[in-house]
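Predict structure. Chain length: 304.
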Amino acid sequence: AMARHAGPRLPLIVKNLLPSLSSIFDSQRVTTTAFFAQLLSSNVVNDLILLETMMDSMTGRQKDTCTLVRMLALRGLGNIASGAPEKVRKHGAKLLASMVNGMDDKDDPHNLVALEAMSSLSKLLDHLEQRDIQSMLLHIAIRIRPFFDSEQPDLRRSSIVLFGNLTKFSEGNGEVFLEQILNGLVTLLLHLQDPRPEVVKACKFALRMCGPNMGCEGLCEMFLNHLREDRSLHYGEFMNNVCKHLMQSYPEMLNRLISTNLFYFKSSWVDIRAAAPMFIGFLVLHVDEDHCQQVDLDPLISGE
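Prediction complete.
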């Protein structure tokens, strides 16, 4: 409301609030950071030449002792994507560094800062080009991978959506990024059976984005045709066909795919626990005899 109706008064309000960012009271730093973060989602900060001042203020809060302040500061930096999208590229290096630091936050027991960093980075990526993110692409992909299996559904969803968004920047990093896709492939396919619909939706999106990078036209077409958001999925039939394409294109990956699936035999989610042995069964069904001989049967039989 203030952005809409009190624009000319905002520079003085911002000036008077700036000292509160260094207040000894957490509540004052939280309130001021929340106000600035929300203000950054409005183009009025650009019109009033406040963007740089407020962005520097948010960046300066990244070492704050209060987790909530650090989280809100990242939200503010991510909001620049809607408040001043044309300025995202200019400040791309600083914004990316802030998001990566947020994902690496060591004093974040509930991963609130990491969650905000992933959500905000997904918003910023729409306004960045490949050269802006090239140097950090692999670090981010590796860093977010453990969140795919988080007990917190918001972390699963945000990390998977971010991974899907990162694939747009894999050109020039083709083979190296393909390795990251193959590392996450089993997890993404199994989480199509996730108990939370928003995580299933995220997996469909990420797999559709991964398809063109996998060098297998059949898989790419399957992901595009069968993983549309508005379409229900016959999971067993879908996985049978996915495994057929995987074993035609990547037969040498059989052991790796099996061992990743074995990890999910102990999953706390019953549908994922059921999907993992089915996945292995379809892989073995479609692999040629030569590669089948390489399978280590002991862990498979014991289910460990």
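Summary: Residues 67-83 form the longest helix (17 residues).
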